[in-house]
Structures
1.
Amino acid sequence: MVNRLLWFAVGGLMSLATLASPIPSAAAPRTIYPSSVEQLDPIVGSQVTESSKGEAEDGEAIVNQAREVLLRQLKKLSAASTTAPVADLLLPPGPAPTSGGPRFASSTVLNSFSGLDFDAGGSILRPDTNVAKSGTRVLEAVNSTLRLFNVSGGTLATMSTAAFVGSATSMTDPRVFYDGNSANPRLFLVVLESANVGTKSSGIWLAVSRSPNPSDLQPASWCRYRINGVYNAPDAAFADFPTLGVGADAVVLAANHYRFANGEFGAAVVRAINKTVIENNAGSCPSLTSFTFQASPTFGDTDAQTLQAVQHYTSPSSFPGTTNPVYLISTQALTVQKPGSGVWRVWRVRNVASGTPVLNVLDVTSFFYQTPLDASQPNGPLLRTLDSRVHQAGGVGNSIWAVQSTLCTWYDGSNGDCVRVMRFDVNQVSGQLTASVSYQLLFGGGPGVYYWMPSVAVSSVQKVGTAFQYSSGTSYLSSAWTALDASTNQFPGVTTILAGTCTTQAQTGDYTGATTNDDLVSFWLAGEASAPNGGGICEWKTQIVQINP
């Protein structure tokens, strides 16, 4: 393995890690029916006055307190682990194209421009940047701010997410996506209203553009909806960390829900909406029906968490009894008693447009994962890397590409943080959901270099692009990208999106951004890096790049 890793580092090429025999599904799928139905009316009128920037996000605070104890225990176990998988590929970060030329000739940087930063992004602690691209618009979202660009990086509009949806409460955890696989292509945003423990209030906001290329962020150009984020079964629980997926005729939102009382996990909840209704909004904003599913059979069961809804760029197949499915991918939640796992879950929502939706889930036993270590930076605290959840998933046809960060082992025996890229192939046999893993690659920057928070986009011919954060004892918080060309079996190198320039606080964004261009050929990627704000204090800024793999 030492020679193999060193050869990859020098040669810069690898054989595609397609499995000789795809790993099949391991157990019969489980069927889940909606637990409730919610009617959603569009929000009418202009924005309301924002709440103050200093408003306490008490719901998120109690979740972080409860989760941090477990994360600290799991990261301690990871530091001493002797069971982490050996990295398949050493890909050290290379210079950004603006400073050192393209890292490798097989991919071309088509666009690169500055995104939001700490000052323009609402002076929030971390960005959670992600990006969507329509025909002539680029939409970036960070926790408290949206910015609409043209394709050259010119700013068309900037607005806080609270003002955009029309809420007096601060916002967090945004997700954006452009659905080009539609008769009415639209931009989507889902964002969380900060939960209020005192009033037991929680909201999930959904916004949809009324044209493929909106000219602004004003209410007349968008339809906005507030979904009740409180889930009662049996204890009141608020929503956190939403994900957004779109299929042929369905929009799927998933979120973790935590108890107001103590911040402990309650359930993962999936909501499904008829896409053909919500996108038929050029004349007026329609009312919607949202179907709600509880993913775990028992409230308080921590085994099913953070279901990553798949962003389908082309439609997966329908089957007898299964019309226009949308998929979700998740890992098992890790515990001190179970600090590592090889179980992956494939979820399928079907028959949404008919009004009789069903959720299925299937366990697939595959590649092992553990909680990543927190990452080093020069002269500062360790950077928070979160856990081994699936961070994003994109689909073309019946193939789903998913990414995570996980503990890995290097040729010198040291543990570190790597990015894993996987391909799931879904099917239906004898009326039952099936899934297999046909590709896996675990790559990193080498001993002492940490890769985490990956995102993923996939082209029509199964080329894959991923962005992620990285740092080391000599590199400040930075972001980078790499691309897999499935036709040439090459994953040649890593290019920096934006290099950090200063030592920052421990909290970084919970994800980076990746999306496929509307032509399904190139990718748009967004990442963050540490940078001084206008007052000279080290905070963050983002960069957006378009690459042609």
2.
Amino acid sequence: MTSSHDRTQVFISYSHKDEKYLEGLLPHLRYYERNKLLDFWADTKIKPGAEWQTEIRNALASAIVAVLLISVDFLDSQYIQDNELLTLLIAAEKEGVTILPVILRPCSLPESISRFQAFNSASMPVAKMKGYQREDLWVKVANAIVSTIASQKGKGALIQKKLDLSGIVADEHEAEKEQVPQSEVQEEPTQGNDLTDQKILIKQGVGVWNEWRQKYPDIKPDLSGINLSRLDLSNANLTFTNLVGANLETTILVGANLSYSDLRDANLHSADFRSAKLTMAFLQNTNLEAAILIGADCNRANLSKGDLSESDLSGANLSEAILIGANLSRANLSEVNLEGANLKTAILSETNLERANLTNCLIYGISAWDVQLQGTIQNNLVITPLDQPTITVDNLKLAQFLYLLLNQKEVRNIIDIFSTKTVLILGSFMAERKVMLDALQDALRSKGYLPMFFDFEKPESRDITETISTLAHLARFIIADMTDAKSIPQELAYIVPQLPSVPVQPLLLASASAFGMFEYFNRYPWVLPLHLYKDQASLLQSLEEKVIAPAEQKSQELAKR
């Protein structure tokens, strides 16, 4: 039987009919493979001429983590069931191999698989996800793999090795013992277990600690609950370290590397993390009040429900970080990169976001008051939850107000005119047409408008007609791209008769077929003639003359009535 300590690989099991999903995951794993944090295997690594069944058996025998990319074709494959899945389930039960299921397409999970926690629910398979949702899922999968491997390696190293502190902590003491006759040597008490040794070692100084980390790179240190308050740990190697519940109040960690470390529930009040690396660190429920994180790299770190009030994160990298429910009141986030970050329900009261980059941030449910936004990039802010049709705006304060309008009927009823600069874009912009959407939004921004985009490709989880109607009431005019958008006509049929003050400019790709009921809208003077465009370049070239100018002129005419 293979020893669990001999298992080092990540085995990816999938159906060849789902290869496109595998290609989405692999780039996230290759990054860690290049940095020697994991070694993954999929049958795409089988070289021509190799005996593929032997290759698969060897990879299964070496697996410490198994990622199951599940679909109806995965479950229907007799080879996968008899050779891969059965072997992995037995290894999970007898040798502790970790099973990580990802649901690709709708299917019913057998009990043998459903007992393992999947990354996503059956109601939201990867096939239904789009854009950053899929990327966010693959990031989570990669993070879980790296964390699991680090944990397993740490356990293996602790089992197979006695922590050798003699050459680091007690060289002089050991030298004295060698000079004493054996008959005169008395047995001394041990220094304690491995956990105690690590907690002693970190207090010997950064030089001693980093030397030990270099000597035992596979060990994942456990410093949970330790008191390191007021120590200078600048440039310390604390990667993959368990610091859960630790006290690091006013600790100096300038230039320290805490990537992939677990600092949940830790006290980091007034700690100095200038230029520190916290990539993919776990910082949920941490106290970071008044902490200094100037220039810190917190890419993909999880700071959910953390208290970062009055902290200084100026110039830090928080791209794709998770800040769900975090308290950022009075914090300095000037020039911070928050691109793609999740700020759901975060508190931004009197927060300084000057010259920060908020592109593609999820800001559903945030509380933003007296926020400083001079020079801030605010493109494509997502104001809806992940499981609802995506609505984006380009202004943080507007986003919060829109959220209230969409979810509070009382507020909605007292608003007659919302903005003279808001343009609602309706359409279906799948991956191959996403470039056109971006170009259209950029062109509108350059003219001083605030584009709002409603994506008809999202799963329907609320009354879409009600949502579109609310957004339409706020718009200066509406641009409706009929290309590949089957449900737009029926939505227009509902809102056009109700909104005689809002011009509608329909667009259609010249090579696409016009829908039959378009003549129905000709009776409404505020619906402009259909504009046909050949391609993206021709649309952008004619945007001012054929789309914006007619819509703006019609809006002014309607306002005088």
3.
Amino acid sequence: MDRKLTFVSAAAVALILSGWTKAAPDFSYGVEGCREKVTGAPGSTQQIEFFGTLTTANNTSPDGPQGWSVSLSVEGANIVSNLLKGVEVSTIFFDDLDDSTDTTDDIERKDPYIQDLGSADMFTKVIARATLPADPNRKGIISAIVMKSQEKQVLQPNGTSRMFRLVVEATVPAEGCIPVTLKYENGFKSTQSQPTPNVVTFSVDNKPTSFPPNLGTCTVMVCAPPPVQREFQLAAVAAGANPSPGDADNELVKNVPPGENTVDVEVVLTTANLNPGDGPQGWSLSVRNDPCLTVDKPLLKGVEVSTIFYDDLDDSTDTTDDIVKKDPYIQDLGAADMFTKVVAKATGADPSPLPDEAQGVISAVIMKSQEKQVLHANSSDRILRVSYKINVVENETTNCRVFFENGLKSTQSQPTPNVITYSPADVVMSFPPTKQQGLLVKLTGKKEDVSDSFVRGDPNDDGKSDIADAVAIVLNVVPGLRGPNDVEITCKEAGNVNGDGGMNLVDAIYLIDWQFRGSQKPPVAPYPACATVAGVPPSECPPNSFSCQ
């Protein structure tokens, strides 16, 4: 091996001493398989395959290189394998079919001739792991190739050929990226070689001469996947509604009677991209509202969430044998067994950073202290309910907003932030919401159409409620029974005896049960008095009801 490497090194010296000035081809060492990035699970190992390449360009000779030597450093990874076997190059081979003679008659030119660099018929084939003498901690490889000695074999005049195969292995960091760098760098040596240069052997005027190639570098970043942002979303919605997609505020749009109205609002906490299992264990809220809304009742009691509860059946011991996991466990946020349950009207009074006139609600919840209780990860829960009063003017539409803003305080609290408490890897941390959706309240004052006065239970409008009304209901609801002389019930609400929204056979039975069996209560209001009903237009229960004259 020393003799072979000395052959290559001597050729390099010959080049320097010769002062050769003829225009030489361009030689370049590169790396095939170089890429920008490799991604894997944190802590995993990633193997990367490379091939060293030799590129010849601007060569006017009919022959290409006949050998080369390589000195390559590897930083940021461990070498798994370095191989010549299986690495094939396209060559021009002058095969001496009878090497017992000195004549050229028996020489056959083979072009192209595919040569495996690891085959036994190679004159010099060296590849080994190496270190840098000046810094033995630096690792790399060296390689040296001379294809033939007695016969002529060269690479193609121009083009790119592989010189070796290299597999390295790197460990993916917990986060971010680490560089793996391959760099052609003179001077690495194996345990048996001398320091090796990067040179290409090429014949000039039939004399093997060594040329220094342009040296390439390859850096591949070995990266953990980009962190997926944990999502904690707060949304104010009308009671019973769900948050709308996107970032825009939710809306409550409807017609209401002019005057003072009540608007029930709920706060929904939605989590996403959390590790499966445990979700938040607590939160604090600062929910502000426009002056056109007035907080009436902020409530936790009756607000129920689905949790995972590790119930310690015997808290007098420190063992875990008596802990029972209850999943799902429905928790009322206003229950007495809550560790922290705060809800109160709030303002921007000092030391709040908000204006003094700011108004709203603050809330703080921690479900348990000694035992573990958390929401489910990647789910939605309603965590607060607030009733507001709002005055609506006839034929006008309100434009009032409920929204999240840090800093409101009650008479007893400090300024309150909007944060969610969550414990990744059993470390309690507070996270600000990644998205906040307010609620835009758009109520239009509209007077509802109301019926003229009628008495429920007197659909035949004869001034009394009796079995004739039950018969009239049957004749009107069963197709084909009502004759030309039978009463047509024009006010269907009068026949809606049980008040379930429609007149049907159930109402006839209801009347009979009430009148003769005593098994039903009297008809629902309006009974026995005459009255109007909101939402029932005069066209359905017209004026001049006999019962109400």
